[in-house]
Amino acid sequence: MDRNTRDRTNDFVLKIATVNGTGSASANGLLMQAIFRMGVPVSGKNIFPSNIQGLPTWYEVRANKSGHLARRAHPDVMVAMNPKTYEQDIAETRSGGTVLYDSSWPLDEELLRDDVSFLGVPLSQMCVESFKGSRERILMKNIAYVGALAALLTIDLEVIDGILKEKFSSKPHLMDSNDSALKLGYDYVREHFDCPLPAHLENMDATKESVLMTGNMSAALGCVYAGATVGAWYPITPSSSLMESFTAFCGQLRKDPETGKNLYCVIQAEDELAAIGIVLGASWMGARAFTPTSGPGVSLMNEFIGLAYYAEVPAVLFDIQRTGPSTGMPTRTQQGDLLQVVFASHGDTKHIVLFPADPGECFHFSVDAFDLTERFQTPVFVVSDLDIGMNDWMCDRLEWDDGYQPDRGKILSAEELKDVQEFYRYMDVDGDGIPYRTLPGVDPKGAYFTRGSGHDRFGRYTEDGDLYQEVMDRLAEKVDSAAEALPEPEIIEAPGATVGIVTIGGCRGAVLEAIEELAEEGTAVDFLRVRGFPFAKSVEEFLLAHELNIVVEQNRDAQLRRLLILETDVEKKAVVSILDYKGNPLSAEVVLDGVRERLGLVPAVVE
Amino acid sequence: MSQTAKPAVRHPSLKRNRLGLTQRDYEGSMSTLCAGCGHDSVTAAIVQAFYELEIPPHRAAKLSGIGCSSKTPAYFLKEAHGFNSVHGRMPSIATGANAANGDLVYIGISGDGDSLSIGLGQLCHAIRRNVNMLYVLENNGVYGLTKGQFSASADVGSRAKKGEENRMKPIDPASLAMTLGASFVARSFSGDKRQLVPLIKAGLSHRGFALVDVISPCVTFNDHEGSTKSYAHTRVHGHEVVDTDFVPLRTGLKAEQDDGQSTSVTMHDGSVVRFRSVDEGYDPTDMNGASAHLKELHGRGEVATGLLYIEPTSLDMHAFENTVDQPLVEVPFEKLCPGADVLSKLQERWR
Questions:
Q1: CA angle B220, B226, B232 (to 5 degrees)
Q2: Where are the beta strands (DSSP E) in A221-273?
Q3: Contact A346, A306 (CB under 8 A)
Q4: Domain A11-192's class?
Q5: Which end of chain A is more exposed for a tag (fewer CB within 10 A), N or C?
Q6: Which residues contact residue A109 at a Cβ distance below 8 angstroms, ignoring those fewer than 6 apart?
Q7: Under a CB-based contact definition with an 8 Å cutoff, are residues A426 and A459 in contact?
Q8: How is chain A split into domains, by residue range?
Q9: What is the CATH number of domain A213-396?
Q10: Phi, psi values for residue A567, rounded to 5°
Q11: Contact state of B84 with A463 under an 8 Å Cβ cutoff
Q12: Residue A246 in contact with residue A220, Cβ under 8 Å?
């Protein structure tokens, strides 16, 4: 069906263009939450600048009855509140769509398009007349456009009212202003325009088992549930909310009931070098410790990561990726750190990495990461990105098994040390490549010297090449042996498909949506999403079983493709790329265009 | 080169402390430093201090960065866990370890290269957090392992072995620490065990970050004429501002009657540090006065030694962080994981 004529009920994209620092974020969150409470699957993507106040910012809401919630280009409804970006916002609106703008000032006629409806609402003017003080007028303008949209999209006013009441339960005086602002927009639109728009909402029942959460929030909660006690960090976008969430959860859930003191210790370090050092010190001591950061932070941590790998000190690192290199675009998303984390540090290293696709997986992988790092005594990365970490996602409710016990790996207690004739830290006693470790302060017999300098299997300093190599070879085997212990790849197969699409992380939604559309067009493709590194055997099997593998990822240098070629027997020419690295969450259009081009398909739909 | 253990043979007449341990039990493996290195004397002082304080060796954690000084934790307390980390980053390892388990005795060994250049930031922030540890800075004004380059503590006019003269002003760790609000600052000389051992003991008993800057000459690269960190120069220009004695808790004060000329400070653990001002009016509990006096001596080319500053009741990192008294590593998992019911209720807010 032509996308221009198909039914837009519970299937549309709404984009709101505002100015950073004007309070629009809470209004936009309110809209999204209201749609969610109407039972309609919804997602929200915040496209924001690295700025406190004044630069343009956007919020994209996608409502989709089939549950496709990846970003989608060309909004059906554009709320244009920022004259500085009118031109691009109007140009981007889908043909047949609607632009809502503030008609307190006239719109330049040159910007008008014949194929788009323009609805002018004098939001500023109405707010100036109804509210006092410039700050309130600015803030209430946001709520007024929510009211206007409630009329145009048929959002249940009672639902919005309910959310506002929860929000302002402690500040009832704010409730009055919000209520009247809401009504200003709502009434004006009802009076002047035909409601609803073709793109509008109807109550559904598809969100009952879901929650709205960000990946940073759920990853932080995973740290709480895994029993992490020491966290160290240096503030960096887009990872800061992970530690802020951890601190907030702990403030609520981790107080000693008797003394009110903290059963956790969060240290804001002087830089990322210190943050990872604190994590290593705490892990060495036997605590579960972690640090959240982003690409630039991982760059700084490289030396310590090498030490942790070589001296076999556990550590959990969250890399919430943003666009690089260097400072890059700090508030935009990317998957540009894959190669950096996999081989972080000078010298020969290789690290265990988990790649969650959404906040639900962030929670579970976070718990897995602590088990894996202690089991394999090596750093473990959880690599997410700005889109997963900071945007609100609709996810299945998180479940917890109360029977869970942390996997502490091979730690010898004082009791167990009694039976050991002589303890050697780096001896492969069990033949699985994983030595036993001891914790400081437990027993004199367990003492050893942790060092990043050359050491033999006894833990002694060495410059003997053979003894050095013995340890290095065991480390390589140890990390490789983790491959099958990691979350297995997600594979969805279509009958008769000879082409496979391989992807990673937050690209999942857009790729699955594209695969569904391709299937509707008669092209069947298989799907594999990598969830861990080192790659499981099934990743190689998938690659070898397909004539062509199309790797979809968000970086310039095809980092996942390179890793697949490096780590499996797949032939280079059997792996091609679709790359998207402009900094926005991936949309299905990019995948569709790419696949069609590579397969020589003629699109069935012309937009 | 490899690591050499010391022979375990003991003379039966060796004295034992109340844990039944001899001083030899507080030693480590053989030193691989140059013969006559000041650092080996510091190691010996550390061994003596731990022995006399009767600290069970395995209840200590010893940490270091990179450099000659940072090798020395291998040479003492073989029954303690040691962590030889990366260059200039020992303070962060110590911070994390202490956060996880505040019950152990922490000793960090660093040098002037490790602490005052590559690791200056971490040193400052460990001071600022007041991490409960003894931080021994073995200061010789020179990079040893890379063969004789000036460090940031080299004095103006000091000459390198090859004749080059340093013209940049030195970073003085003691003055720096005082500026940053450190709670315990001392300086000594590796060749003066009488002064060094009580300072190490006091530093170990102090609750908070205790910096002991030890002038510890490098016999190979910085002990020649023209060096201001040589044995000879330090002996002549070292200037004790206070004479310090450490009285452990168990001894009590009875045997150590106040002679009217000394002042006592009671430490967090109840032990007592007694000091007698050598320079008239020097008061190590007065930060401003102490700083001014240090500067004055420095201007005369003298090196102030002794317990330079102490604030015995300072708040340490765990106080700032309001952590439970029990070490975090000993808190059972059941107390850390909120469980399924809480998770389910928590998520009601996210709808």
A1: 70
A2: 230-233, 265-268
A3: yes
A4: alpha beta
A5: N
A6: none
A7: yes
A8: 11-192, 213-396, 414-483, 490-599
A9: 3.40.50.970
A10: -100, -5
A11: no
A12: yes
Whether B224 and chain A come into contact, CB under 8 Å, resolves to no
Strands B105-111 and B60-64: parallel
Tally of residues, chain B: 351
User: Is B91's Cβ below 8 Å from some Cβ in A?
Assistant: yes
- Answer whether 0.90 is exceeded by the pTM: yes
Q: Is B315 on the interface with A (CB under 8 A)?
A: no
Report the CATH number of the B23-336 domain. Answer: 3.40.50.970
What ipTM was assigned to the predicted interfaces of this complex?
0.96
The pLDDT, as a whole number, for residue B256 is 46
**What is the distance between the alpha carbons of residues A461 and A463, in angstroms, rounded to a whole number?**
7
* Burial category of A503 from C-beta neighbours within 10 Å (exposed 0-12, middle 13-18, buried 19 and up): buried
Q: For B281-292, write each residue's pLDDT tens digit.
A: 899 999 999 999
Which value, to the nearest 10 degrees, does the dihedral of the CA atoms of residues B294, B299, B305, B309 take? 10
Count A/B contacts: CB-CB distance under 8 Å: 230
Residues of chain A found within 8 Å of residue B323, distances taken between Cβ atoms: 261-265
Q: Which of residues 71-90 of B touch A (CB under 8 A)?
A: 73-74, 78-86, 89
CATH architecture label of A490-599: 3-Layer(aba) Sandwich (3.40)
| Per-residue pLDDT tens digits of chain B, which is 351 residues long | 457 788 777 788 889 999 999 999 999 999 999 999 999 999 999 999 999 999 999 999 999 999 999 999 999 999 999 999 999 999 999 999 999 999 999 999 999 999 999 999 999 999 999 999 999 999 999 999 999 999 999 999 998 888 899 999 999 999 999 999 999 999 999 999 999 999 999 999 999 999 999 999 999 999 999 899 999 999 999 999 989 888 887 654 443 445 567 788 888 888 888 888 888 889 999 999 999 999 999 888 899 999 999 998 899 999 999 999 999 999 999 999 999 999 999 999 999
Indicate the burial class of A429 (C-beta count within 10 angstroms; 0-12, 13-18, 19 or more): exposed
Question: What residues 38-67 of chain B have any CB closer than 8 A to a CB of chain A?
Answer: 56-59, 61, 63
Q: What letters, b where the CB count within 10 A reaches 16 and e where it falls short, cover B129-163?
A: bbbbbbbbbbbbbbbbeeeeebbbbbbeebbbbee
Omega within 30 of 0 (cis) for the link into A56: no
Residue type, B53: L
With CA atoms as reference, report the closest residue to A355 among A366, A371, A345, A343.
Answer: A366
Question: What tens digit of pLDDT does each residue of A328-361 get?
Answer: 999 999 999 999 999 999 999 999 999 999 999 9
- A213-396 against A490-599: fold identical: yes
Is there a contact between A265 and B83 if contact means CB atoms under 8 Å apart? no
Per the CB < 8 A criterion, the answer to whether A472 and A348 are in contact is yes
